[in-house]
Amino acid sequence: MSRMSPISALRIARFGNEEEGSLTIMALFFFICMVMIGGLSLDIMVFENNRTRLQNLSDRAVLAATAMNQEGDPEAVVRSYFDKAGMSSNLAGIQVSQGLVARTVSVQTAQPMRTMFMNMTGVTQLKAQTNSTAVEGMDQLEVALVLDVSNSMNQASNVPGMATKLDDMKNAAKRFIDVIYDNADQGTVSVTLIPYNTQVNAGRDILEALNVQLDHEQSFCLDFDDTDYGAVAMNTSKAYSQAAHFDQWHVNEQDPVVTVCRSGSNQEIKLHQSDPEVIKAQIDALTAHGNTSSEIGMKWAASLLDPSTKDLVQQLSSNGVVPNEMSNRPLDYDVDGARKVVILLTDGINTEQMRLNNQYKNGMSPVYETVNDGATETYSVNMRSLFNRASGSKDFWAKSDCYLGICWNDTWSQTPTLGWVASLLGLNPNYGQRQLTWQETWETMNPRHLAWHYLVDASENSQDYYDFLDGLWSPVSGATKDTRLLGMCNDMREESITVYTIGFEINDHARDIMGRCASNANTFIDVTGDDLEETFASIATSITRLRLTQ
Prior knowledge:
- By secondary structure, the protein is α+β, with helices and mostly antiparallel strands.
- 37% of the residues lie in helices and 22% in strands.
- α2 runs antiparallel to α3 (74-84), α7 runs parallel beside α14 (478-494) and α12 (447-459) packs antiparallel against α13 (463-472).
- The longest helix is centred in the N-terminal third of the chain and has 45 residues, at 22-66.
- It has helices at residues 6-17, 22-66, 74-84, 165-182, 204-209, 276-284, 294-305, 310-318, 383-387, 419-424, 438-444, 447-459, 463-472, 478-494, 508-517, 529-544; strands at residues 91-98, 102-114, 125-137, 140-148, 189-196, 222-223, 241-242, 270-273, 338-346, 353-356, 364-371, 377-382, 396-403, 406-413, 434-437, 473-476, 498-504, 524-527, 547-548.
- The chain folds into three domains: 26-137, no CATH class; 145-352 and 477-548, 3-Layer(aba) Sandwich (Rossmann fold), CATH 3.40.50.410; 356-474, no CATH class.
- It is elongated and about 135 Å long.
C-alpha cells in the first residue's frame, strides 16, 4: 500500500486552504447570468420591434381598405400592402363587412421568430400576433342630444356676435345636426332632443304612451326614484308619477314665475326624428330657466335609446309623433352596423331640486279661492285644517279686502271671505267661493308665498314657514344627482352606448363629474364659448369618420 509523501499532503492541504481566485469564479458566474439576461432582453427587443412593424403595417392596410372613397376590393388592398412590405406570408386572415353606408375590415397576422438566447431556457420560438379592425360609417345611428337649458345659460357669451351661452349652444347644436345628416343616407339617422333644467318635460304624448295618470295639464315631467336610475331600461309596466307643477323659488310673487317642470311644447322632448329641420326648429325655440338636473336628462336619453321603449316608439309612430321610418327604433344592441350615441352638454354643476311629497300633490287643500269684484281673486286659508289646530271662532286667514286687483288688510274670518266689496253689495258670503285642490293651489300660488304671506302673517311665527316647507317637499341635492348621473353613465358604457360630455365653461367639480361620465378620456371635451361650435362639429364627424376600433 502506497503512502502519500509528507510534501504531497502539505501541498493538498495548502490548496484546500487557498482563497485566491474565488472572486474570479463568482464574477464569471455573474457574468454568465448577465449575458443570459442581456440575451433575453435582446430577444424581447427584436420580437417587439417585429410585432410593432407588423401592427403598423396591419393598421395602415385596414385603414386604406376601409375607406369608403376607395373603389378597390378591400381584401385586395390589404394584400397589396403586405406584398409591398414583403410580409404576405404573415397574413393570417382578412374579414370584410360591407353595409349600405358602412364598411368594416379586420386583419389578423402572425410572425414566428426563432430566439437566439431564450433557447438556453427552453424557449426556441416567439410568435408575434396582431389584430387590426377599422370601420367607416354605420348602417344606423341613434343620437340623443341632452342640452342644458338652466338659467345660467342666459349668461353673457364670450363669442363675438352672440348674446348668451344659450345662443352659442343653439348655433353649435344646429351645426351638429347639419353635419350628422349631411353624412348619412335618408332614414339611417335618428336624433332625440332632450332639453333639461330642473326637470325634463317629456310631453303629453310620451306620458300617455307610458300610461301615466295625469294629475294636471300644465306640464309633463316624471318623478324618477332611486330604483329608476339603477337601469338603462325604462320599466314600461311601472306606474310612474307625474311631477307636480309648482315654483320652488319665489316668495313675494304670488303667481308662479318659473316652475320646476317647464310648460310649453318648445321645452318638450323630440323623439327619434329623421328630419333635421324639425330638430333645428326645436333647438331654436329653447329658452333657459331653472336649476340643473343632468341626471334626469341622462335617464331619459338612456331609456329612449334602450330597446325597452321600442313599443312606446311604435305607438307614437302610429300617432304621428315619431316618423314612420323610425318606428323600429330604438334598435337592439346587437344589430350590425348600428351605433348609439349620447351627447350631454352642461355649463355647471347639478343643483338642488324640490319634489313635492305625495300628500301635497293631490287631494283638497285648505286654500279657498274667491272672485271679489269680477276680476280680483282672493284666497283664504283654513289654518285649523293646515296645522291641525283646535277649532276656533275664526279659522280662516285671508287678504280680505280687494278691489280692482289690489288687496289689503289681512284678517281672520269664520268663513272664506269675499271682502268688503262683496259685503257692501250684500252678496251671499259663499258666492263664488271654491276650495282648491293642491295642484290647483300650486298653479295659482307659490309654496313659499303661501308659507310666508299667509301662514306666517297669520301665526306671527316665522318658524311656521320652515316647518311647512319641510313637510311640503323633499330636496334632491346636487351630490345625489351626481351619484345618479355617474351610475347611469356606467350602465350606458356596459351597453356600449357611447357617451360624449361637453363641459361649457365649467368649474373643477363639474369637470370631474363630466370626465367620469364620458365613455373615455377622448369623449370628454372641456370648452369655452368660441370652441363650442367646432366641438359639436368634430363630434359629429367622429361618429362617422374612418377609425381604428381594434
